[in-house]
Amino acid sequence: MKAKVKKVLLAYSGGLDTSVTITWLKENYDNCEVIAMTANVGQEDDFDFIHDKALQCGASKIYIEDLRQELITDYIYPAVRAGGKYENKYLLGTALARPLIAKRMVEIAHQEGCDAIAHGCTGKGNDQVRFELGIREFDPDMTIIAPWREWEISSREEAFDYAEAHNIPLPITRETNYSKDENLWHLSHEGLDLEDPSQKPDYEAILELGVSPKQAPDKATPITIDFEGGNPVAVNGKKLDPITLIQTLNQLGGANGIGILDLVENRLVGMKSRGVYETPGGAILFHAHEKLEELTLDRDTLHFKQVLALKYSELIYNGLWFSPLRQAMQAFVDHTQSQVNGQVKLELYKGNIIDAGVTSPDSLYREELATFNEDSIYNQNDAEGFIKLFGLPQSARVKK
C-alpha cells in the first residue's frame, strides 16, 4: 500500500532516472508536490540546465547545494587518514558522498515540511542502502520512496521509453548510456560493454578525467605533497584550500594516466558488478599518505591500522558512515595522525606513481640504527638472545 504523501523531496541529478522520477511521482502519488535537491559535490554539470530542467519536468522548486568543501574535509580526508580502500582497491568515491547528501536532504525536507524523501537508486545497487541509512540516521520516521522498487519500468531502456512518451528532455542518449557517478573525488562508469568482464574497456572512449597510460607523456611529472596531521595542505610547495588541492591533483594525475581502476567488486546486496573508476587525485593522495605513514608510525600502530582499514572501508561501502563503530575507528585513526607530518616527493609517469623521497620532522627512521656501516649504538650480539626468546615456543614444540 502506497503511503499518502503531499510533498516529496527528490534527490535529483538531472540524469535519466531522476528526470523520469519527477513525472512518475506526480502520476502515482496524487499529483504530490515534488521539490528537487541537487548536490554539487564537484561533478562537471551545468547546474543552470539542471535547475531549469527540474522545473520543466514538474518540480515546484529546486535546491542546488554546494557540498564540495564539506565532502572533502569531513568525509574524504577522514577516509584518506584511515587508508579506507574497499577490497584494497576502490577509493569509495560514490560511497563517501552519499551520507553527506542524505544528511542535507533531511535538513531540507524538514525545512520544507516534506512528508517523504525519494531517490532514483535501483533495487540492485548499493546507493539505495547508503541513502536510506543516511536518511534514517537523522529522521527514522521519514517516508522513503524508491521508484525503482515500485514502478513497472524494469530497465534503463524502458526508462528511455517512458521519458520519450512523456516528452522528458534528457542529457544522454541510448548509445552513450553508461551509468556514471561523478564528484570531485572520482568518476565511475558501469553498464553497456563493461558488463562483460572478459572485455577490455575502451579507455580512449570512456575516460573523462584524464588519459590512458598509453596516451600519457613520455616524461615523468615530479610533484611534492605536504601533510599536516595526516591531511594534505600543499602541492609543489604551494598551500591550497581543499577544493583547489583535489582539483590540482586530479589535473596532474589525469594528464599522466593515474588512478584508473577496472574492478569487479562485491556489492552489499550480494552480486558482483564490474566498473571502471577514475580517481587520479585520490590515487596520488592515498599513495603519498601511506608513504608518509611508513616513516612516522610505529610498527604496531601501522600494522593495526592496515587491518582496521579493511573493516573501516567496508562500513563506508555498506552505508554505515554514521555507525558508532566507524566513528570509534575514526577516533583511533585521528589519534594516530598527530605525527603524520612532512613532505612526500613523487613522480607521475604513464599510470605509475614512483616514490622519490619522503621527509618528516616526526620521522621514526634512524639512519644510525639501520645502516650497514659501522655504528656505536646497536650491539649485534644482542640479537642472539632475542632470537632464542622469540623462538622459544618453536623450541618447546620441536623438542617435545
Q: Can you tag this structure with a few keywords?
A:
400 residues; alpha/beta; Rossmann fold; Argininosuccinate synthetase, chain A, domain 2; 5-stranded parallel beta sheet; 42% helix; elongated; argininosuccinate synthase activity; ATP-binding; Arginosuc_syn_C; amino-acid biosynthesis; Arginosuc_synth
Tell me about this structure.
It catalyses: L-citrulline + L-aspartate + ATP = 2-(N(omega)-L-arginino)succinate + AMP + diphosphate + H(+). It is found in: Cytoplasm. It holds the Pfam family Arginosuc_syn_C. Pathway: Amino-acid biosynthesis; L-arginine biosynthesis; L-arginine from L-ornithine and carbamoyl phosphate: step 2/3. By secondary structure, the chain is an alpha/beta fold. It folds into 2 domains: 7-175, 3-Layer(aba) Sandwich (Rossmann fold); 180-297 and 339-359, Alpha-Beta Complex (Argininosuccinate synthetase, chain A, domain 2). The chain is 42% helix and 20% strand. It has 14 helices and 14 strands. The chain has helices at residues 16-28, 47-57, 68-82, 93-112, 127-138, 156-165, 203-206, 242-255, 280-296, 299-317, 324-336, 367-370, 382-390, 392-398; strands at residues 7-11, 33-40, 61-66, 116-118, 143-145, 179-182, 187-190, 221-228, 231-235, 238-239, 260-266, 272-278, 342-349, 352-359. Strands 3-2-1-4-5 form a 5-stranded parallel beta sheet, with helices on both faces. A hairpin with a 2-residue loop joins strand 8 and strand 9 (231-235). Helix 3 (68-82) crosses helix 4. The protein is elongated and about 85 Å long. The mean pLDDT is 93.
